[in-house]
UniProtKB/TrEMBL annotation, chain A:
It is a multi-pass membrane protein. The chain crosses the membrane at residues 12-28, 40-66, 97-115, 156-178, 190-208, 228-246, 251-268, 288-307, 319-338. One of its GO terms (cellular component) is endoplasmic reticulum membrane. Pathway: Protein modification; protein glycosylation. Keywords: Endoplasmic reticulum, Glycosyltransferase, Membrane, Transferase, Transmembrane, Transmembrane helix. Belongs to the ALG6/ALG8 glucosyltransferase family. GO terms for molecular function: dolichyl pyrophosphate Man9GlcNAc2 alpha-1,3-glucosyltransferase activity. InterPro entries: Glyco_trans_ALG6/ALG8. Its main location: endoplasmic reticulum. This is Alpha-1,3-glucosyltransferase. It is an enzyme of class 2 (transferase). Pfam families: Alg6_Alg8. It is found in: Endoplasmic reticulum membrane.
TrEMBL record, chain B:
The lineage of its organism: Eukaryota, Viridiplantae, Streptophyta, Embryophyta, Tracheophyta. Its main location: endoplasmic reticulum. Pathway: Protein modification; protein glycosylation. This is Alpha-1,3-glucosyltransferase. It is found in: Endoplasmic reticulum membrane. Belongs to the ALG6/ALG8 glucosyltransferase family. It comes from Ceratopteris richardii. GO terms for biological process: protein N-linked glycosylation.
Length: 358, 503
């Protein structure tokens, strides 16, 4: 909301409803059952603090989120890049960085104190990084799973090598976004960078779950008034990618109901006039991609529900599903990277702020 | 200058309202959202009515026509008129495809596997299409904002959602047929309206309470000469014959009528519907206790009325016994002002209020009334409420008294009606500025206190009673709610009577 404070009430209210009524989040947290809302909430608090120029509060909140669920590390590069980029532009960069460092380390110490005291910190860390589970489980829409149709990673390399490979790939993929933010930090760029870094983690990281799609989804939803087509593409990808998981949980009817409700929320007849300029600013290529995804995804899911897969390929539909979503995610990722880099020239908010401060 | 601008606006509204497809997108949107919500309600609790309808599916699917009203395989015997039985028969074809056990007469008893639940809930959701159609047809000439308000109030009516989609019944489509019938009458198409009403009666005879209203109205408004009278009479007879004809042929009419009108049941249902008889019972009980304490020898039936048993026992200890005949007499008596009004002024605009009033009378004085029968007057009342502030206030009051746990609904309705009747309005409301000047949407202090009392009572019933009394006096909470709500409903009935008299 801090980011959108200049918008009209209609739009903000609608955006608010869309963000909070995420079907993906509802289904995962209240259907499958998890507590993602806590770490996501803390992260959102951190993001809001950044938009309100309260950087230390942001760091503290984000560290709390990290210590609640280590998956929040997907956002870490973005936070780092933005705060670092902002710090080096200030008068005394090293001092600023040290101040942030104190905030971060202080929060970590507070959370880990009991474990440090009883010297069980190492056991905790081991539990947090279960390398033995393999590079991917089931059929998740990321690079390793999609490319394993061609290159059988699990059969070629051992787990430790794969872990390093994944780390390298992830680093390379979020590097452009980080570099951009360090070079010219801005609020809009920060949100896009959040999206890009979490998406790159999702696509290339080790042992990614389907539920991790929530992480790129949230920044995309924050950008809904700026870039509606991005959000629409993301929500479709997220929902379709989660279908196999929810089907196993027996949540097909709630899935259909919440998915349909959300699509109805995105197309309210009596808000059409208020939201017309948001809808007009969609990028046509993404729009067509989303439409295609909607149609194909529904088709695959329908087949999945009704037909038995051939015995030779028992996971045919899951594989098709994740492949389709993967392709769309790559396209969306390309689009968002272009967006972030093109934001450099038009949104020099921080430099303007610097002039004001001096 | 301002006058012409307003005139232009009114003209624009009128033009927009004349378009036949006006509001169709909004209807579709609202209907889709309502259907999604109903989908989310699918796994919730369902009552014995679920088994009742499942049994009727099996009954109509497995047995020939002449056994439908005779079979006693299950205690849930068929007690709706023949068209409803045919409806179940048609549904049973699809049920058989989904899961044959549903329609098995013996193996399907008390069957509530996922397939049965999803099928039956799905069938209610599909039949609600008639409700959507009926509401849209009635409202399609309203200005858009009023349409949206009506759809909001009807499609998302918590009472309807709870009764139809949780408890499990098929009221939605029946109310849809009622609204269709009234919409035809509103347009002046009396013959079709009358025929639709006859069809409705052959689905659920409970709707026959408004039959006198229809009869008088059609007689005065449509039957200008003998030819028309014969046309109408013939059409209605045809409908009734189509429904009951086969049973007449098999000589089972007496049995059918016995099933349709089970007067062996008591005056009140196990849970007292908040009507006049609830107050009557309460007064009777109080008097019995009082006289007992004063030393009189009073024969008291133990928990005869709220104990869940619906027998024919001597219900009242002090006050005179009530017979079905007396109850029907009172219903007709209370409806008489309305009938007289229609006889004198058979105007199209008056019809809806009178129909609603008739169902209210039936609720207040009827025999063995269920709580759910209140839907018959609350839902159509919405459509009258969007037209005038006075009725809106009454609708709001009644709908709260009926369903006490509807915070979201009440705030939405309040907002909707308040916006609709804002005193200085420059938005598109409607032509009758006289009514607007009469007052904006606000409840008088008495109503507010009553509602506050209701909230307090509900808190008591849910939380405090158990702490104070533990297991003793288990009937007391429900009785208190019945009596309290019946006071509210008696007030609502009298208010409606005043509207009718003012017509």
């Amino acid at each position: 909301m801090a980011f959108h404070h200049q918008r009209r009430f209609d739009e903000s209210a609608w955006a608010f409803a869309v963000i909070l009524l995420q079907p993906a989040l509802i289904l995962i947290d209240h259907g499958h059952f998890q507590y993602n809302c806590i770490s996501l909430g803390l992260t959102l608090g951190a993001v809001a603090s950044i938009c309100l120029h309260r950087d230390y509060l942001a760091s503290v909140l984000f560290c709390l989120a990290l210590n609640h669920k280590q998956m929040s590390a997907y956002y870490a590069p973005a936070f780092f890049a933005y705060l670092f980029g902002k710090s080096i532009r200030k008068k005394n960069p090293i001092f600023e960085v040290m101040k942030l460092g104190v905030a971060v380390i202080g929060t970590f110490l507070l959370c880990w104190w009991p474990f440090l005291h009883s010297r069980t910190a190492e056991a905790v860390l081991l539990r947090l990084a279960p390398l033995q589970r393999g590079i991917f489980e089931d059929y998740v829409a990321n690079f390793w799973c999609a490319s394993s149709l061609v290159v059988k990673w699990k059969q070629i390399f051992p787990n430790t090598v794969l872990a390093y490979l994944a780390l390298f790939a992830t680093l390379v993929s979020f590097l452009p976004s980080v570099v951009q933010q360090i070079r010219s930090p801005s609020h809009r760029g920060f949100l896009l960078s959040l999206f890009n870094s979490s998406l790159s983690f999702y696509l290339f990281s080790y042992q990614v779950h389907e539920k991790s799609i929530l992480l790129p989804l949230i920044p995309a939803s924050l950008l809904i008034l700026e870039d509606f087509s991005l959000y629409r593409g993301m929500i479709l990808c997220a929902m379709f990618s989660m279908f196999p998981l929810l089907r196993r949980d027996g949540l097909v009817v709630p899935y259909i109901a919440t998915f349909a409700l959300h699509l109805l929320l995105l197309n309210v007849p009596f808000l059409e006039k208020s939201l017309s300029h948001v809808k007009e600013r969609q990028h046509p290529s993404l729009k067509y991609m989303s439409d295609g995804l909607l149609f194909t995804g529904c088709l695959i899911d329908l087949l999945y529900l009704l037909i038995e897969p051939p015995p030779r390929y028992p996971f045919l539909f899951e594989a098709l599903n994740s492949l389709l979503v993967f392709i769309c995610l790559v396209l969306i990722g390309l689009h968002s990277h272009i967006q972030q880099w093109s934001a450099t020239s038009t949104h020099e908010q921080i430099d303007a702020d610097k002039v004001k401060m001096n | 200058m301002r006058g012409t601008k307003q005139q232009q606006q009114h003209e624009l509204q009128r033009q927009q309202a004349q378009k036949p497809m006006n509001g169709l997108r909004e209807v579709l949107w609202m209907a889709s959202v309502a259907t999604c919500i109903k989908m989310l309600l699918m796994p919730t609790y369902h009552s014995t009515d679920f088994e009742v309808h499942r049994h009727w599916l099996a009954l109509t699917a497995s047995l020939p026509l002449n056994q439908w009203y005779i079979d006693e395989t299950s205690p849930w015997t068929l007690d709706y008129p023949p068209f409803f039985a045919w409806f179940e028969y048609v549904l049973s074809f699809f049920a058989r495809i989904v899961d044959p056990v549903i329609v098995d007469l013996t193996r399907g008893l008390k069957y509530d596997a996922a397939s049965a639940v999803y099928f039956q809930r799905g069938s209610v959701m599909c039949s609600d299409l008639l409700l959507f159609l009926g509401t849209w047809r009635f409202c399609r000439n309203f200005p858009l904002k009023l349409q949206i308000l009506s759809y909001l109030a009807i499609f998302f009516s918590p009472g309807l959602l709870m009764v139809d989609h949780i408890h499990f019944q098929y009221n939605g489509f029946l109310l849809g047929v009622l609204l269709l019938s009234v919409s035809y009458l509103k347009e002046g198409n009396d013959l079709t309206g009358g025929i639709m009403f006859a069809i409705l009666l052959c689905f659920k005879h409970l709707f026959a309470i408004a039959a006198p209203v229809y009869f008088v109205y059609l007689l005065r408004h449509y039957c200008h000469d003998l030819a028309r009278f014969l046309k109408l009479g013939f059409s209605v007879m045809l409908v009734i014959l189509t429904a009951f004809g086969p049973f007449l042929y098999y000589g089972q009419i007496a049995q059918v009528l016995r099933r349709l009108f089970p007067f062996g049941r008591g005056l009140c249902h196990a849970y007292w519907a908040p009507n006049f008889w609830a107050l009557y019972n309460a007064v009777d009980k109080m008097l019995s206790y009082l006289l007992r304490m004063l030393g009189f020898d009073v024969v008291m039936e133990k928990a005869a009325m709220t104990g869940g048993l619906v027998g024919d026992s001597k219900a009242h200890a002090i006050l005179p016994q009530i017979t079905p005949g007396l109850s029907m007499f009172l219903v007709l008596l209370s409806m008489s002002p309305c009938l007289i009004k229609i006889w004198r002024k058979p105007r199209r605009d008056n019809l809806l209020i009178c129909v609603v009033y008739a169902y209210t009378c039936g609720y207040i004085f009827g025999w063995h009334v269920h709580e759910k029968a209140s839907l018959h007057f609350v839902i159509p009342l919405v459509l009258a409420a969007v037209d005038s502030v006075k009725v809106a206030k009454e609708y709001y009051f009644v709908s709260i008294v009926k369903m006490i746990f509807l915070v979201l609904h009440s705030t939405a309705m309040w907002y909707g009606f308040a916006i609709n009747f804002a005193p200085q309005t420059q938005t598109s409301v409607k032509e009758s500025e006289l009514k607007e000047r009469n007052g904006c949407m606000s409840l008088c202090i008495k109503k507010k206190m009553f509602i506050a009392g209701l909230v307090g009572l509900e808190i008591y019933v849910q939380l405090i009673h158990h702490l104070v009394f533990e297991e003793r006096l288990p009937f007391l909470p429900l009785m208190l709610i019945s009596v309290y709500c019946s006071i509210g409903l008696m007030y609502a009935w009298l208010k409606q009577l005043s509207f009718v008299i003012e017509l």
